[in-house]
Amino acid sequence: MAEIKPIRALRYTAKAGELSTCVCPPYDIVSDKEYRSLCDGNPYNLIRLELPMGGEERYEEAGKLFRTWLEEGILARDETEGIYLYRETFTLEGKTYSFRGLVCRVGLVPFSERVVLPHEETLSKAKTDRFNLMCATGCNFSSVYSLYRDEEGTVRTLLAGCEDLPVLGEFTDGEGVTHTLQKIEDPVLIARLAEAFKDKQLFIADGHHRYETGLNFKKHLEQNGNPEDSEADSILMTLVDLEDDGLVVLPTHRLIRDLPVEKEAFLEKASPYFTAREYPDVAKAKEVLEEHKDRHAFGLYTGGEGFTLLIGNDRADALTVEGRSAAYADLDVTVLHTLLLEGVLGIDFENMAKQINLRYTRNEEEAVLSVRRGESTAAFLLNATTVEEIRAVAEAGDKMPQKSTYFYPKLKTGLVMNPLRR
User: Fold this and answer.
1) Is residue 374 within 8 Å of 257, Cβ to Cβ?
2) pLDDT in tens, 340-394
3) Secondary structure (3-state) at 117
4) In angstroms, rounded to a whole number, what is the distance separating the alpha carbons of residues 372 and 220?
5) Sign of the Cα pseudo-torsion (27, 33, 35, 38, in order)
6) 249 has which bridge partners?
């Protein structure tokens, strides 16, 4: 079902400087401070194109800057097309992980065809921003991160031996993650890989806004006279085996802002669905939550040294949500949002979407400090959503609440780029 294609990629040349100083994290997690640091580190850092600053003219300016870098040879297309191998190797909590992705073009199809499946809601503002940038530059600077199932091991077998391919670029970033890029040019192997993906569904892990923008851009060109040299019928993707041992999903914790949380009253209202247990050391919250990952369990922190563990009972397990799948209703984030944030605190869907009283962080220590500093009135600490839960929700044709997943580490933007014209 999925159509994968080789790409004659656009990449940085030696004129741009060290590759590690040219690439950037996904645009939507770059803070103002990091933005300045990336630009100061190298004036050719891709963040200047991927996240242009300024008013309405910023998209046009990004387009001009992009064309200037092409003219100056800062960016150049490879002579030959291929499918790229992208590996990330990293250490987390004392354990070393490594996962490999295939970077290629993937044919754009509507979600209704169930070839590419989303798992998360999107925001119209972000899609408008990405659409304006795509119109101005005609390029995919960053790839959509997607997962696939390789139950028969066909893709793994085809990729056996590719470890020995020449390395096009390799560096270790500030977080200690090593990024390695190689390229498959053998047309026979590329054709076999394309054949292997014809019976596969792809599950978007990260990049829902980019994929929907690709669909919108394709439709826009079709309605306005699609250029003959257009390749906007496909989008840049990095495809990772869902069974890859290196896949890591981190939890995203919830912070309550500008809303009083009186602990005893909260626990009383939550008691029909949750049992509360007190623990003396909030630094042990992650360990305690891990021990209870077979239940809907959350750590409630309102200050001090300890925290409260909330363990869902049978009523919490039996939660149903009108119009949503059983897989959706069984997610920790769904139970938290429905029974506690909305049911007890009154933070409804619109409030959550606008982040009026709700903020997010993937850092447990940051969540605790936010409460201690008085920035937040409470923090809810969670276990991570599993890859299988993501797959189940997507296969059910449903979408998770926002900020349900955080795949770590993020893919770097700028290693491989996809011009939308030949």
Assistant:
1) no
2) 999 999 999 888 878 899 999 999 999 999 999 999 999 999 999 998 898 899 8
3) strand
4) 49
5) negative
6) 407
